[in-house]
Amino acid sequence: PPKPSCQEKDHLSMTDALKLGFSSFATPTKGVLVVFCDDGLNFGAATKKAIGSAIDVVTRVAKAERFTGKKNSTLDLTVPPGLEVSRLAVIGLGKIAELKPNDFLKLGGLALGRLPNATSDATVFAEIPGGAMRPEQAASLAQGARLRAYAFDRYKTKRKEDEKSPKVRNVTIAVGDVAAVRTAFNTRSAITDGVLLARDLVNEPANVLYPEEFARRTLALKKLRVAVEVLDVRAMKKLGMNALIGVGQGSSHQSRVVVMRWNGGRAGEAPVAFIGKGVCFDTGGISIKPAASMEDMKGDMAGAACVVGLMHALAARKARVNAVGVIGLVENMPDGNAQRPGDIVKSMSGQTIEIINTDAEGRLVLADVIWYAAQRFKPKFMIDLATLTGAIIVALGQEYAGMFCNNDQLADRLNKAGIETGELVWRMPLAPEYDKMIDSKFADMKNTGGSRWGGAITAAQFIKRFVDDKVPWAHLDIAGTGFDSRQTDINKSWGSGWGVRLLNRLVEDHYER
Ligand code: BES
Ligand code: MN
Ligand code: ZN
Question: Any residues with Cβ below 6 Å from ligand 1, and which?
Fold first, then answer.
C-alpha cells in the first residue's frame, strides 16, 4: 500500500509517557505523594506514617478548605512542612463500605490528574483506612492511571511553555503485596493496551488511516498469535459483498475487510463474534454532509477500532475463548464513480437494497460483514459496534450507547457488564412496525426510513434483516460514545476506546472455559 502522507515513522508500538512501577510502602523523598482518606479524614497506617508530623497541617488545611474526604474530592498541599516531597495530594474515598470495584479505576485516574505537568516523580499510596488496597483494587488503580495518562500528541511539533512536561513520568504505586498486584496488573495491562490501541486508531486522521493502512495496522496482532486475514476488493467481489463495495467505490482508497481470529478456547468450539463499522472517513458521499464538524467523521471507524482493541486485549491476556473479529473498512466519498441515490445493490445475502441516502452507509457495510461472519463462523453470538446514527445521540446523549438485541439473556449480560465497567448501554426497541419504514418500491428494502423519526431504530431494523434470528445478536450504536466523548477521570482523549473494557468483561464473565 502507498505510504500515508503524514507519517514519519511506524506508530505500531504504544509508548505512553507514564512509567509505572510497584513498591512496598516507604516514605518518598521527592516528587508528589498521593494518598487516600475516608469521609472521616482517616488514613491507613502506612499513609499516616508517611505524612508524619505534617498531619497537623493537613488537618488545618482540610478545615480551612472545607475538605471532608467526600468521594472523589481532593486537597492539595504544596511544600508540606516536615515532608521531603514537594506536594501532598489527598483524595477522598467517601464511605469505604460503599466503594465498588470500578471506583478504583476512577481513583487511579483522579490520582494521575493531581500531578502538575512538570511532575517527573510521584508516589501513590494504594491504601485505605483499613489497610493496603487488595491486589485487584491496587491493580485497577494503576490501570486507571494509565488510561488517564494517554494523550494523542504525535503530531504536535511545538509545545507551549506551560505544557513542557518531562518525557517520562515515573509513578510508583506503593502496595501491600507487590507480587500479587503485579500479577493482577498484567491482565489489566493487556486490556488497557487494547483500549489505547483503539483510541490511537480513532484519533488518527483519515489521510493517515485509510482502509489499507488500517488493515496493515491490524497485522501487528499476529505477534499475539491472532490469525489476521485481509480481503481485498477482488475477494469481496467474489463473495458478493456489493453493499460494502458500493460505499467505497467513490474513494481513491480501496476498501478492505479484515478477519481476526483468536483461539484460546476449546478446539472446534463455536466462537463469539465481534463486527465493526470501519468508515475511515464519512463525507456522506453524494448525499454530502454539511461542513460543520465534518472533521469528526475521521472517527466513523470507532466500531472497527473497538473490535481490534478487543482482539488485542483478549489475545494479550490469553483469554480462554474462541473469538473472531470482522471489520469492514471503507471511505465514503463523493466522486464521478461514487454510488448514487436510487442505485440498487445486491448484498452478499442476496437481498437487494435501494440506496436513498448515500450518507446512511454504515448499515450497508455492516449488512455484508455481519452476513459474512455468520455464514463463515456460525458464532455463538454476534455483537456489532457502529457509529451508526446521529439519532442515537439525540435519544441517549453521550452517557449511554444504544443497544438493540434479539436475545434477552445477551442483553442482560451486556447491561451488567456495562454497569461493572462504566461503559453503559441502554436497550432500545426492535419491532416489525418500524420495519415497514424501510420497505422499498423497487428493491427488497431501502437504506433509510421515510422520516427522521426513530432514526437509530430504523437503522437497527435494517441490520436485523441480515441476521438470522436463531443467533443471539446485539447491535451497539456508539455514535455518542466512540469519539468526542464525555471527558472522565480515566479518559481525556477524543477517541475514547469505548467498548473494549465492556466486551472484554462480557467475555470474562460468561464465555471463558
Ligand atoms: N456516521 C454517521 C453517524 C454519526 C453522526 C456518527 C454524527 C457520529 C456523529 C452515519 O453514517 C450517518 O451519516 N448517519 C445518518 C443517517 C441518515 C442519513 C439516515 C445520520 O445519522 O444523520
Ligand atoms: Mn454517513
Ligand atoms: Zn457513517
Answer: 282, 300, 357, 359-362, 387-391, 448, 455, 479
